[in-house]
Specification:
single chain; 290 residues; alpha/beta; 3-stranded antiparallel beta sheet; binds adenosine monophosphate
Length: 290
């Protein structure tokens, strides 16, 4: 078992990547903002099966936070993360400083038009430009053959897939299922912000998604009706302040009338200071059990 290697600079990461590529290694990347939980660990285990060298980046990217968002209070604990990464099978932790990633004079932005402006992009202006830009930079620092992302952030997956294809980045994009708490709440580093009341109500997001899935299985394929079912479920919980509950095309995130192809049921709501998101891929009735 080789020891976990912690790299703190872009230059050192690029040199290590060159060495690994020269040695014929397949490099897999797991981009994270740290404060790891079982969702992140499932990504590390997944890419371990695909790659000979697993790089986990830990970087709280300032450019994807809005001015009124939680950049300053975002939870951080690098030594705990390093231990969890070692335990899950990572080889390299890449944890650069913000000044190294965004030095004075930095002025480039990667913007995936259309996909970035809807749903979470509408509520968080600039968020997906920040995400696309930092992932493009992480790809340029690590030069991975593959990278893995969580289905929990479905819009992020759509944006990254589009960017990687449009810019011929040559990185294979893998996606892992959402890891949940016992009551269905999607695991998130931000869940620690929830008060006990908010936490006990937050399972409603997954319940709303499941209600939509159940109605689809029972033959209700109209997207508007499925959306109404989710809205109604969430509205029963006054602590949840609904942002959106929608059924969209799984790839383009465009509106659909009926679930005839795999579609994305996606919800977002504010619980006090925390904004929670979740989603479920809906398969048309004849494929519901596949
Ligand atoms: P984050 O550190 O929150 O930026 O997340 C890093 C990666 O982990 C992203 O690809 C997320 O989609 C993924 N991720 C976060 N939470 C979960 C979860 N509960 N299940 C699966 N993947 C997740």
């Amino acid at each position: 078992v080789s020891a976990l290697h912690v790299i703190r600079t872009v230059a050192e990461m690029q040199a290590a990547s060159d060495d690994m590529r020269r040695a014929g290694r397949r490099i897999g990347l797991v981009p994270t903002m740290g404060y790891l939980h079982e969702g992140h660990q499932s990504l590390i285990r997944r890419i371990r099966r695909d790659a000979d060298r697993v790089v986990v980046s830990v970087f709280v990217n300032p450019t994807q936070f809005g001015p009124s968002e939680d950049l300053a209070s975002y939870p951080r604990d690098l030594s705990r993360d390093i231990a969890l990464i070692a335990e899950s099978g990572g080889d390299i932790v890449f944890a650069p400083e913000a000044e190294d990633v965004y030095p004075d004079g930095f002025s480039t932005s990667v913007s995936v038009k259309g996909l970035s402006g809807v749903l979470d992009g509408a509520s968080r202006p600039g968020h997906f430009d920040g995400v696309a830009t930092v992932v493009a930079k992480l790809f340029a620092c690590v030069r991975p053959h593959s990278a893995v992302f969580g289905q929990k952030d479905a819009q992020q997956v759509a944006v990254i897939r589009r960017m990687t294809a449009d810019l011929n980045m040559g990185v294979e994009i893998l996606v892992c299922p959402t890891v949940r708490e016992a009551d269905g709440l999607a695991k998130s580093s931000r869940n620690i912000y929830l008060t006990p009341d908010e936490r006990s109500e937050s399972g409603v997001l997954f319940q709303a998604l499941q209600a939509a899935e159940n109605h689809l299985r029972a033959g209700e394929a109209d997207a508007g009706d499925l959306e109404a079912i989710m809205v109604e479920k969430i509205r029963c919980h006054p602590v949840a302040e609904l942002d959106y509950a929608v059924v969209r095309d799984a790839e383009t995130l465009g509106e659909v009338k009926e679930v005839r192809h795999p579609a994305l049921a996606a919800v977002a709501a504010r619980f006090g200071k925390s904004r929670l998101i979740d989603n479920l891929v809906l398969f048309p009735a004849d494929r519901a059990d596949s």
